[in-house]
Write a structure and sequence with these properties.
MetI-like fold, 11 helices, MetI-like_sf, molybdenum, MetI-like, membrane, ModB_ABC
């Protein structure tokens, strides 16, 4: 069996999850506290991947980043960046597609904290950045963990977005979900079964860990 699609899937999921964490922390913090009129618009845009078909998102990514399009051509000519049919393109598309799976748990966790927690930190002389990282985040570790594992699992299972923006280039964009589809097309059910079984086991383990922590069984170890 060719392990390359599985390794590429794990690489994509890890990279996407790390980028999502960096993007989602300030975004979730703003959404949880902001009273701006733009909050509803931003919240809606973040949630759009939950309701849009992956192929729709992938299609617009393909159009936007294609070198035949003005924006894609500008990226290629001025920055030397080609996002279509490339691993960086997969990462960007995956980050945007999995954004709600990271933002929403962190946003809900921050909303659940009493305002007095941050206020006490400010009274003790801590600035906003220190309060956020040293006081607020440690108190939402289960929510943070949920966002991390759900984003990772969601990226592992991506198909439509990845296929539209990356195609099926071995070593570049042929992730496990695409490999399964192609093996089924060629009636190589043994290989498709192996890929599917590995992804099933991985996804089950990830979601089980979330349920155990959120159910309280492992909370005493997550402190």
């Amino acid at each position: 069996m060719n392990w390359e699609p599985l390794l590429l899937t794990l690489k994509l999921a890890l990279t996407t999850t790390l980028v999502l964490l960096l993007v989602s922390l300030p975004l979730a913090a703003w959404l949880s506290k902001s009273r701006s009129p733009l909050k509803s618009v931003v919240d809606t845009l973040v949630s759009m991947p939950l309701v849009l078909p992956p192929t729709v998102i992938g299609f617009y990514f393909l159009i936007a980043f294609s070198p035949s399009n003005a924006f894609g051509q500008w990226l290629d000519e001025h920055l030397g960046i080609q996002l279509v049919f490339s691993f960086p393109g997969l990462v960007l598309a995956s980050v945007l597609y999995s954004l709600p799976f990271m933002v929403h748990p962190i946003q809900a966790g921050l909303r659940s904290l009493p305002p007095s927690l941050a206020e006490a930190s400010y009274i003790l002389g801590k600035d906003r950045l220190t309060t956020f990282f040293r006081v607020l985040l440690p108190n939402i570790r289960p929510a943070l963990f949920t966002g991390l594992v759900l984003s990772f699992a969601h990226t592992v299972g991506e198909f439509g977005v990845v296929l539209m923006i990356g195609g099926s280039i071995p070593g570049v964009s042929r992730v496990a979900s695409i490999a399964i589809y192609e093996e089924v097309e060629t009636m190589n059910y043994a290989a498709a079964h192996t890929y599917s079984l590995i992804l099933f086991g991985l996804s089950f383990a990830i979601l089980l860990s979330v349920n155990l922590i959120n159910g309280g069984i492992l909370k005493r170890y997550w402190r």
